TrEMBL record:
Pfam family, one: G_glu_transpept
Name by which UniProt lists this protein: Gamma-glutamyltranspeptidase
Organism of this sequence: Gluconobacter kanchanaburiensis NBRC 103587
Taxonomic superkingdom: Bacteria
Region (Disordered): 1-21
Annotated coiled-coil segments of the chain: none
Similarity annotation: Belongs to the gamma-glutamyltransferase family.
């Protein structure tokens, strides 16, 4: 099997105009509905079964979004409802998470996405932070990788203007969000360390020594200004322009040693996905350097420990290419090792009416990254990958010869790969996916492209959202 692997030299330099978007104003309105989450779980044109599960009623599915944070899921859902495809909705969801869940998905971090379209080889886009190369600083930082990766995905697979997908995140930052249970839980976990930083305390503090709790309002005007700068000047400004200098200077003042060249060299990598074909089904997984996909794939195909497989992969002295990972999968190379405690992450999954699916996992290499803010940008600075273990970023898509069967991604640190592998084995048997163990799953199960059901872990605080054609006629 031939494998394609190439590094994108400068995706932000590939600026191209697309057909005009049909829904920028409606996207901006999504934030207003998000603020009502504590009071209702329905918005016009939507069909929600509960905060944890939704099924598309008859009439033809426009698509489904499942995420760990409800307001971000609603943003992606609205993109689908207004005519965007799964790549557009995934991009908007990830950008919204940078505002609504900055503990795990800030713009100072990175991640990986799996993109699958009917009849095509699934693709991985990995956008992982680089370690800063400057000397000094007491909080080693990584570069901000998310924007370049998301821009590349949307450029290759999206249908609307990238700026229209920044708009809802910008509006959420400017007008304010409701602190969700997911964000409140993360804030409580790091309260003393986070409040020790003056800039972080100004954003997340509550009174003299308290911290924001679920239901509180959180506006982030500096972050809104940062997003507006990118909307006006383009993503390239953060990596090759004046905003790169602003950001790196702010990170240096906050104790992180990154420089302009580090930002220029922060490049996303697009490759074919890892693939397993068995029982008349094709399973695709995110490929290294997002090696959680290899762990999930080996769990799915052999039933062995996904964490052990990743531990063996990371400990091996061989090459870490896509071809090597596919050979390890084909050979069923299991491992019995274990990984150290891994950084926190978050995940989400999206499908659209055409059968396109996107599954992503995002991380800052630590909960709240370095725990500090990049000055006037309002961005939570991601931790250096040289000082923390690589997060287990994992996602998978299952198809049969006729249609999409499952889209799965997970967090849960060390157990994420095993959770995805087990869920995919269950989906292949056409039985409900159990939410158990320490892995936290976001899942969409389909019986034909027009009949999909999303579910998120009922023990957590996520949202599954679906919409149908007949609600928008």
């Amino acid at each position: 099997m031939a494998h394609r692997q190439h590094q994108i030299s400068s995706p932000d330099a590939q600026q191209g105009r697309r057909a005009s978007s049909r829904f920028p104003a409606s996207l901006m309105a999504t934030a207003a509905c998000s603020l009502l989450l504590g009071a209702c779980s329905w918005i016009p044109g939507s069909h929600f079964i509960s905060s944890n599960e939704t099924a598309a009623p008859s009439g033809g599915s426009i698509g489904t979004v499942v995420a760990d944070e409800p307001q971000a899921a609603l943003v992606g859902h609205d993109v689908l409802a207004r005519g965007g495809n799964a790549a557009d909705a995934a991009t908007a969801t990830a950008l919204a998470l940078g505002v609504t869940l900055p503990s795990r998905a800030s713009f100072g971090g990175g991640g990986a996405c799996l993109i699958s379209r009917p009849g095509e080889t699934a693709q991985t886009i990995a956008f992982l932070p680089r370690a800063g190369t400057s000397k000094g600083g007491d909080r080693p930082a990584g570069t901000a990788a998310s924007f370049r990766g998301l821009y590349l995905m949307q450029l290759h697979y999206g249908t609307v203007e990238f700026n229209d997908l920044i708009a809802p995140a910008l509006n959420l930052a400017s007008t304010g969000i409701t602190v969700s249970r997911a964000l409140a839980s993360d804030l409580a976990a790091v309260r003393p360390a986070l409040l020790a930083d003056e800039n972080a305390r100004a954003i997340f503090g509550r009174g003299e020594s308290g911290i924001l709790v679920a239901g509180d309002s959180l506006a982030q005007p500096r972050l809104a200004g940062f997003l507006e700068r990118i909307r006006v000047a383009g993503v390239g400004d953060l990596y090759n322009g004046a905003l790169a200098d602003v950001y790196t200077t702010a990170v240096q003042k906050a104790g992180g040693a990154i420089n302009d060249d580090d930002m220029r060299q922060t490049l996303p990598l697009q490759t074919d996905a890892l693939v397993s074909r068995q029982g008349g089904m094709d399973a695709s997984f995110v490929a290294p350097p997002a090696d959680g996909g290899l762990g999930a794939a080996l769990r799915y195909t052999t039933g062995t420990s996904g964490q052990g497989a990743v531990a063996a992969w990371r400990a091996s002295s061989g090459d870490k290419t896509l071809a090597a990972a596919q050979a390890a999968l084909n050979g069923g190379r299991a491992g019995n090792g274990s990984l150290p405690a891994l950084p926190a992450s978050t995940s989400f999954v999206v499908t659209d009416h055409s059968g396109m699916a996107v599954a992503c996992a995002l991380s800052e290499n630590n909960l709240f990254g370095t725990g500090r803010i990049a000055g006037s940008t309002g961005v939570v600075i991601g931790a250096s990958p040289a000082r923390t273990p690589q997060p287990l970023l994992t996602a998978a898509v299952l198809r049969d010869q006729r249609s999409l069967r499952a889209v799965i991604a997970a967090s849960g640190q060390n157990e994420a790969a095993d959770a995805v592998g087990d869920a995919l084995r269950t989906a292949a048997r056409n039985t409900p996916v159990p939410h158990e163990g320490t892995g936290r799953l976001n899942v969409i199960l389909c019986h034909g492209n027009d009949s999909c059901r999303g579910s998120t872990d009922p023990r957590a605080a996520g949202l599954a959202a679906g919409t149908t054609n007949d609600t928008h006629n």
